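Our preliminary data section would be incomplete without showing what the modeling component actually yields. Below, a chain of 308 amino acids is followed by its predicted structure, encoded as tokens that our downstream tools consume directly.
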Amino acid sequence: MAYTYKKYAESEEVKKAQEALARQESAKPAAYQSQWQSQLESTLEQILNRKTFQYDMNADALYNQYRDQYIRQGKLAMEDTMGVSAALTGGYGSSYAQQVGQQTYQGYLAGLNDKLPELYRLALSKYQQEGEDLLGRYDLLSKQESTDYGRFQDAYTAWQTERNYLADRYDTERETDYDRYTGDRAFDFDIWADAAKRASAQAEALLAVGVRPSDQLLQQADLASEYVNGILASLAAGAAAQLGSSTGGKAPAKKEASKTLAEQYAQLKAAGAPQRELDKLLNNAIGTTVAGQYISTRVATQIRDSRG
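Predicted structure:
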């Protein structure tokens, strides 16, 4: 019977390690999604595309406010001045009063122009402050983005570390389990090989003396029935040929000094011969017994019974 073995099957420890690894794999963090990226891009675009400072007093709300105020106050002052001049001249209007009133009005407008340097500096300061505010906003958003991404990296690293640990544990468990399996298989094969070797030796010894081994022994020795039948047929044919040549085709008469193998075996056994001598007699039966002796199935049975 040829050697057969069970295929490798993972142990419970290996299966548990594999399941733990699979659970960790399924818990992999999702790809990082920034909640600040759009604001960062928008702020950066404002910084990069910001126009160079240019002061336009007509577009300056503060300048327009001052202008309206100075015009209004200039008109009032002009009217007061003209009124005073008219009173001095007896209540009659004169070119002098108008001239004095116009000068007063222009004086107020000149005061508005004196405000322009101050208004320019205020507008420039505002422009610079807006730029600094944009830079500050971008820096704040960048820090928040870095904080969030750092947290994601920490979580991902922790997950990866645990995944690698579980993967190593699974590999170790499986390698150890498979080594144990191959070791057990090799041990079983050695036992089978030793048993098959002993069974083969026993079967060959029985065949050498014309005894057919049992089916169980043949199976253990992995000997095919065709092979066994061939050996027995060859021995029987050889024995028959020797009998025919020595007796001229007649059945031989038993001589007193000649004993069959069964008789020799029984005699030695009765005399207390060691088992190794009895086995040696059977193993060397061909060539040591009477030439041409044919061992029938009945005699072979008797030999086996006597050994028992």
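Residues 116-208 form the longest helix (93 residues). The CA atoms of residues 53 and 127 lie 7 Å apart. Preliminary results of this kind motivate Aim 1 of the renewal.
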